[in-house]
Amino acid sequence: xxxxxxxxAIRPVLLSAPYGAPDNLEVELHxxxxxxxTGLVEVTLEDGxxxxxxxxxxxxxxxxxxxxxxxxxxxxxxxDASDLGARxxxxxxxxxxxxxxxxxxxxxxxxxxxxxxxxxxxxxVPAYRLLGGRTVERxxxxxxxxxxxxxxxxxxEIGLLTERGIGLFKIRxxxxxxxxxxxxxxxxxxxxxxxxxxxxxxxxxxxxxxxDIIAFLQDLAGRTSRPLAFLEEALGPADTGSYRFLRGQIxxxxxxxxxxxxxxxxxxxxxxxxxxxxxxxxxxxxGMLATLEVFAAARHWGCQAVVHAWGSAVGMLANYHxxxxxxxxxxxxxxxxxxxxxxxxxxxxxxxxxxxxxxxxPGLGVRLTRDIEARxxxxxxxxxxxxxxxxxxxxxxxxxx
Length: 401
What we know:
Helices cover 37% and strands 17% of the residues. By secondary structure, it is α/β, with parallel strands linked by helices.
């Protein structure tokens, strides 16, 4: 007779929903149709319990995500979901010859997260219990947005952070956008909010150089005396080795790592002194257990681990549960409107005074219904464009503004 935690079924689920707001540069450049896709995995156990996981690759290649999940499912049906280490090894055996790093890791992430959600639900415990237990009671959030093209839209984002009591705002600013960054830093300071900058070089090839970054920071310093909380993704994917040199050239803390697909690689970067803040994402790096490996390395090397959480509610909660188990002190809270960050929640996120708390509800705290699947049916045009054209000018294009 099968155990209650035997895996009975695994299926990929693609959902597409409206994303962002008017005057959002990310939407204009990368999602011109205004919809964004999320790739979920639903695992069903022998006792009927279901669990959800998310793989970030579906944002960019939904068909690849679906094919990968179907491949992985072939080795898992009939196996015990509660033996998480063995199930991850099963999936790695199927993929590591041809995708030791890369897309297959996103799919493994999704399945591992779904297994944890299902097993935790079957045991009636929150997901963090399967990860060793909660080690902190609450985690500070930083608002992640700041890609608006108008001052009014940016002020609305600052207002939302003020309402939530969140004291740190991460904006997107490229090397030609020092005027925008300085304006936001001054406006945010009026509400007691600090600013960090994501330079969005994780898709850039060729990317900017260390010299470009220093010139940007010098330009910024000529416009405002406000300090930056941190600088993220400042170098491109082909030049991560320059991060350590960059850290020696500037006083600003350096963050990165959201695109790294194995814990070993991110742990090596931490040990090599590339980052002040390492940013694992459970939907990318191989799952929640892999994320905890990064937290352990960060503690050992004196680096701060801060989860990247830019997916739907499923990916957000997976990262948050890992952060609570890993002893996180700061986590990303994505700001662009996206229905799948709300409608997949079993209950609203516990955010008060700028901090997140987790409930003791079983599993991750997410659910998928037939109504949600029907309402947000997959759209073939809701695929992230990684080769965008030239954006229109923002209100900060003139340095005199």
